[in-house]
Amino acid sequence: MRSRLRTALATLVIACLLPLIADAASVQSPDGRIRVDVDVNERGEPFYSVSYRSATVIGASRLGLRFRDHAGLDSGLRIADTGQRVSDNTWEQPWGERRRVRDAYRELTVQFVASDPARGFAVVFRAYNDGVGFRYEFSDQRYYRDVAITDELTEFRVATDATAWWIPGRAWNRYEFVHHESGLDAILLAHTPMTLKLRNGVHIALHEAALVDYPAYVLDQRRDGVLKTDLTPWSDGVRAYKATPFNTPWRTIQVSPDAVGLLNSDLILNLNEPNKLGDVSWVEPGKYVGIWWAMHLGLATWGSGLTHGATTEEAKRYIDFAAEHGFAGVLVEGWNKGWDGDWFASGAGFSFTEAYPDFDIEAVAKYALARGVRLVGHHETSGHVTNYEQQLDAALDFYERLGVRQVKTGYVADGKGLERVDEDGITRFEWHDGQYGVNHYQRVTEAAAKRRISINSHEPIKATGLRRTWPNWISREGARGQEYNAEWAIPNPPNHTVTLPYTRLLGGPMDYTPGIFDLLHQGPESQHRVQSTLMQQLALYVVLYSPIQMAADLPENYERFPDAFQFIVDVPTDWEESRALAGDVGDYVIFARRERGGRDWYLGAITNEQARSVKLPLDFLRDGTRYRATVYRDGDGADWKSNPYDYVIETLDVDSSDAIELELAAGGGAAIRFRAVQ
Ligand code: NOJ
Ligand code: CA
Hints:
CATH architecture of the largest domain: Distorted Sandwich
Number of domains: 3
Bound molecules: 1-deoxynojirimycin, calcium ion
């Protein structure tokens, strides 16, 4: 305990070890609203509970771990020691939703031991004003030197009935599902972040932070209202292989009196370790276009031949378009060998350094650099991790030599479909979110950092705030993205993008790829269409945070609406500050963000299938400054289904004392640029 405290933060830390007393302990958030209580029952089973403004949020919930070859730490325990400290500091994000992040909490460490005091662990709780994090900590122990964890008992006993927004865990399509909105009782297995609205209106979100070298967990509802962590197993059934000393990831409970408060919470980032990469000025937020949507529309193919999308000529056309409109990058998918045939079946055939003959990658990369644009790399693995890892160094060296600074990766394979060839040459199939997957994504990120390359993982492990520690893990997918609005899928319904900020994006940035302008690409009769108005596509750039944002449509479709396209050209992707202003889960959401290093503000508002009008005070603007607002809004007759292209662009002069009335059409949105004029 004492050595833990000695190595603690250099910032304001007031440490006070409590005397060796208690069989119960508690800690409160700095504002006193959130309280965590910890105790053991008569069987020596450890428990914790959480309250918000004196009302229980998480009732008495179990803690503990079980092992394959060692005695479990689940009962027969007592509290041997407790300690508390307080910390309050502010740190800077190299890129992000806001430059400065306040990290203020009170911490409680509870040392649990068995009758043999050589057996035990500490559980460290941090109470913040916006929620709670806790994790298990194992010191360098003789007894638990190498352990195979078979179960984590951590529970979240939700205190009241609740509405839940969730996607199924342990399912074939990883995280790519439309969220259910249901009573708590409908949940069997659910991924995190999972968001709940309790009977008294308090919103909570269950998730985890700093998921490193450990499996992700899904929530398993064993008994009514009791959600148990279910660690994703290896193919041999073990959940995690660990060696002491180690800490588990933080188990997190964000708590807010309303839905919007969740959007303004920095809990997940604060529970991650500071930047380990030092100078990361080479990590470049920005916008990109790419040879991408054409394949999803079936107009071109990833495979080679007459319909091949990734040709030298086509890449140059995109580069010209990017240069003309100020986009930083051009993604090219399908340039490398391995896409011919059924790449869904196995990624064993992918080469990450050999191009198809009609794609001169050297010439394309050079052409891009000469025009002030960079090629964005692509590594689709189809889940064959061993094939990818065997080529990883060569693949990243290759891109580094070409001046590539960002690589999108992909793991198209069903859940439990990551292919691993083990030491005996036997192919094993692993989950994307098991310890094997977690460690693989991490290896790629760290190998890329050595080459000053940033990673945008598709079919990723869920986001748990690791961008703070490795800022080159710049974005990821990990939910149903825009791709589902293409020719091959059932589209995202209008309540999807108004659910994502309150669920998936609580974990971190998402590469949703907004900005489809040809909303009816298969014609008005087809079900394959985008279920939004054109204006909502603009608003998504502000609402769905990512430091890299794609302008996902074909250049020719942007040329049809140059006035609306101007917003995509103007909107930044890196912010000085961000504020969620209004919204409700699955209904609507409004964000305002100020550009990094500048005075201009941008606003994005989107709604679900219901039209709504929202009166919004502009008090986030700087007092005493006049702004010229360019408003991109749904026209009076707009409706995602019947009239998605009806829009109005108008300018207004405003300041912080004004209010505006936003009229959002069904499936609609509004985007505003506030240019500081004096
Ligand atoms: C799925 C990704 O999400 C998508 O963006 C990509 O185009 C395909 N895989 C092919 O790699
Ligand atoms: Ca995907």
